[in-house]
Amino acid sequence: MLRLFFLLIICPVCLTGFAQSSHPHILVKAGDKALVLEKIRTQPWARQSFDNLLKHVDPYVERHQTDPDWILSRYLMNRVPGKRYTRFYSDAEGTALVRYAGDAPVPTVRVSPHKRPPIAPDGYRFRTPRIEELLPNDTSMTMRLQSSGPGKAWAVVDPQHMVEVINGNINQLVLEAAIAYWLTDKPVYARFAADVLNQWARGASRQYPIEGPCRTGFLSIQTLGDGSYEPMMLAYDFLYDYLRQAGYETGYYEPVFDRFAHTMAFRGLWNNNWFAAETPVLVFSALSLENRQQQRYYLDFMTRRDTIAGNCGQLALPTAMEKWFTPDGHWKEPGGYHNFPVSSLLISGVALENAGIPVFQQYPALFQASYVMLKYAFPNYTVSSFGDTGRPMQSAECLEIGVAMAQKYNSPVLGSLLAAMEVVQKKQGYDRSESGYMGLLCFLPRIPEAGGQQYQWPRSGELDFAKCYLQRNGTDPGTGLMYVVQGASYNHNHANGMSVELYGAGRVMGIDPGNGPSYEDPMHTGYYAQWAAHNTVVADGRSASVPYFRGGGGTKNMGEIKLMAMEPRAGQAAVSAECSFTDTRYTDKATGTGQQRTLAIIRTSPETGYYVDIYRSDNARSNEYLYHNVGDAVQLLGADRKPLPVEAASLPMATDANDPPGFRHFTAVKTPVGNLPVSSAVFSLTAGIPAFMQVHTLPEEGRTMYVAQAPRAGTAEAVYQQKPVPVLVMRQTGESWNRPFVAVYEPFTEAGSVRALTRLPADNPGAFTAFSVANRNGSRQLILQATDAEKEHKTTNTGFRGYFGVVGLTSDGLSYLYLGEGSMIQSQGYTLQTGTAAGSANLTVDGKRLRITCRQATAVSIPAGRKAVLTVAGKQTALPVRRNEVGAVSFTVPAVTDGLIIID
After folding, report:
1. CA dist 874 to 82, 574, 578, 898, Å?
2. Where do the Endo-acting ulvan lyase C-terminal domain residues begin and end (predicted)?
């Protein structure tokens, strides 16, 4: 608290001493030019980056020398006298412009008339036209656009949000030309950039922020869209001296930058990612002002003071770090939204650091935010796609900024950042030459060596705000396994219950589809954001958020799942190299249905393994289990592993015209002829490296299996993004609590290792599930799962008291006992007892050599022996032994990691 008080005291001092008298000064200082040129001269990646910049901008600059009107005429402006609008009015929701007013003596900048891009009749977005495809001096409010869908159809439509995208592409050229001028001193670059900048500023200076709700911006229907004009502020910084020397009118700029800064400070939304994503506009525009008092005024809203008015306004860094970041630095929205606000904050931080405001020193959590996404990545380095998002990856830009700032302050996390950078470069395939102008100007010339430190992926993880839990086993992209289970109400979530994603054979196979064409599009509101799009269980065909989701990017109120048990818990070491699990619970708000889901990873060799999924749902009418796997086809097999004959069918729960979960969007629905029992399903992927996902299950009375085609998933790998997603539906008439859905998922590329599941006797099926998994290598695992860790259950030669346990068997007998969380597991004459319902232990057996890892003191019983000697880290301890009348031996082991017990 004393440190925070001190920082608040010194912050105004920082603000009064930062003003720069020379330009550029926002991302780089005038004196940095020699350093950047040296970087280009000595570092091949920087040379290539600079060459890429010139290659992009040179054709436009060359054309500008003989045809200066060409690029100016492609900029979208209000050009018709009498319609050179200066005032813009939105509807009450801030969705679309409904009225224009005013008439300037010069063309003004067109404002996007809608917050969303137009959607083609085929359901795909339109392709943004290249600058060369634009009509010169276009005064129409419509455009001829081409669909990005397979048909590539053309249509004449309102470009909507695309207006600012097109102008933003030209703005990027302006910035690149301004940078080229700064580095080469060639006036042709400056003239091109200054001419476009001058036209833009002259028109914008006569415009006023949109009148409407506080989400509306200055030159965009949404404040978020004003980010398209960030390049113009940076370009002005590089062209500052040239504009004056060449005689351009510079009086336009101060009012434009002031309006941007004021709009960002007091409009927008603070209860989602907007305020953070807008910070570069706020900081860049503030630093572009000549009035130093106004600079300090606006920067204060970034560094110290919130401007909250209802849902509107800006959060300063102290509040933002407390409210919007997890302890490890993850932005509190779906993973796909992390990179956007965090990269904006980091870029803003670079500008503030240049201005003498040490934000990275004041907020070290920014370092964690720069690389935390790697912590939650699948083995192929992509991150889960739950919610309104695509499938993200660790941002190299964020990591580069983190490394540069950590080196500046000699931060203790520098080693971890460098280890993460090694992964991003060598394994994720990041090429520094593609880092654009930020890399050229701001990144270190060379990334220091990690000093032998390697990035360590944790076995498990948790994002509490999203009730998201992950387990992984292995980090090799081809053989690693990882699942994520998630469900909660938060910004940009989906209504999905306890939904999972499964990884295998080099890709995310059990897939969450991400968002639809737009947040208001019928496919998004009626399918992608609903239960049927996810790997979950629907209750009575009616599961939905309450109230029912009607569109938008906000919260879908579905309640949240509850973590009951997990091994290893986030931040803990695992007790087993082969096994891990989670147990979550949920109550469906729409139907009152209680549900319980146990997910586990079982490793059977360094190359093979499978997932266990046990899902209980107590709706008395029906329960529908859904699993979507990216690929080309899915086939149902009988107990003999032969394909079952199938026939066309309809899903009973899709008959309601409203169909809240979205089943109506499934096509090509089929079911086995005569409702033949299904032993397994196999999903096949033929693109790239052929792969398969086999799903073994246990039949139940009253259960019907279906296969179908679900709508495409934009989160799939590129080759499958335009294809429908095969889906498996298991429908249980009546409750599925005493008859839980049991599925074993195995991804593989050549031959699967799992051969069959066998149900084991359960004394109370509603509270205890037991089955055997037989593998091709002759091993078996007895899977034990219970809903109450306090009650003891028995099955064939096995006893169990806990949430989840595994008995590993080979032809030689017991291989291991895994007590995921519980107090007792017993089989084949061996027993583990922890003395606590939340105990965790693993015992492997190799003749008279036992290995044990236990999180607490654990009593071990074995069939025979006289002495037990425990060796840990080379230190031997004789364990007191107790023998019973039949020769069985028991002893107690203290909490230990990888202890070796020799039995004599």
Report:
1. 88, 21, 24, 11
2. 766-838
Q: At what angle do helices 162-184 and 33-42 cross, to 10 degrees?
A: 90
Summarised one tens digit per residue, pLDDT across range 562-597 is 999 999 999 999 999 999 999 999 999 999 999 999
Do the strands 680-685 and 633-637 form a parallel or antiparallel pair, or are they unpaired? antiparallel
User: Could you tell me if 130 and 181 lie in one domain?
Assistant: no
C-alpha span between 365 and 331 (Å, rounded): 11
Domain count, the chain: 4
* Residue 80, amino acid: V
3-class secondary-structure state, position 433: helix
Sequence-separated (6 or more) residues with CB below 8 Å from residue 881? 865, 866, 867, 868, 889, 890, 891
Of 391, 417, 452, which closes a domain? 452
Show the beta-strand stretches assigned E in 667-812: 667-672, 680-685, 691-697, 703-710, 725-733, 736-748, 754-759, 768-775, 780-786, 793-795, 798-810
Tell me the three state secondary structure of residue 637.
strand
Are 674 and 570 in a shared domain? yes
Q: Which residues contact 582 (CB under 8 A, 6 or more apart)?
A: 469, 471, 485, 563, 565, 566, 598, 599, 600
* Residue 704 located in a structural domain: yes
Q: Which amino acid is at 535?
A: N
Q: Distance between CA 770 and CA 610 in Å, rounded? A: 16
Residue 154 belongs to domain spanning: 120-159
Judge contact between 838 and 862, C-beta under 8 A.
no
The CA distances from residue 672 to 622, 648, 758, in Å, are: 19, 9, 21
Write the secondary structure of 90-123 as one string of H (helix), E (strand) and C (coil).
ECCCCCEEEEEECCCCCCEECCCCECCCCECCCC
Per DSSP, the three-state class of 566 is strand
pLDDT tens digit string along 656-700?
A: 677 999 999 999 999 999 989 999 999 999 988 899 999 999 999
Is the distance from CB of 188 to CB of 68 less than 8 angstroms?
A: no
Task: Map tokens 């941002």 to a residue.
Answer: 395
Pair (251, 190) in one structural domain: yes
Give the start-end residues of each E strand in 416-557. 460-463, 468-473, 481-486, 499-504, 507-510, 537-539
Integer Cα distance of 454 and 421 in angstroms = 10
Quick: pLDDT tens for 729-767.
Answer: 999 999 999 999 999 999 999 889 999 999 999 989 999
Does residue 794 belong to any structural domain of this protein?
Answer: no
DSSP element (H, E) containing 833: strand 830-833
Regarding whether 611 and 565 lie in a shared domain, the answer is yes
Q: What is the dihedral of CA 547, 549, 552, 555, to 10 degrees?
A: 60
CA angle 329-333-337, nearest 5°?
Answer: 90
Instruction: Report residue 654's pLDDT band, with 50, 70 and 90 as the boundaries.
Output: confident
Are residues 130 and 107 located together in one domain of the fold? no
Q: Which amino acid is at 404?
A: A
Query: Quick check: 66 pLDDT over 80?
Result: yes
Q: Which of 104, 128, 159 is the last residue of a domain?
A: 159
Q: Find the CATH number of the domain harbouring 593.
A: 2.70.98.70
**Owner of token pair 């999903």:** 683
| Residue 385 domain-assigned (yes or no) | yes
Residue 188 is assigned to a structural domain of this protein: yes
User: Using an 8 Å Cβ cutoff, are 510 and 745 in contact?
Assistant: yes
Same domain, 259 and 357: no
CA distance 610 to 694: 10
pTM: 0.93
- The one-letter code for the residue type at 492 is H
Identify whether residues 363 and 512 lie together within a single domain: no
Residue ranges of the alpha helices (H) in 92-229? Answer: 162-184, 187-204
Residues 35 and 169 grouped into a single domain: yes
Torsion of CA 327, 329, 334, 340, to 10 degrees: 150
- Over range 108-124, report the average pLDDT: 94
Round to whole Å and give the CA distance between 65 and 195. Answer: 11
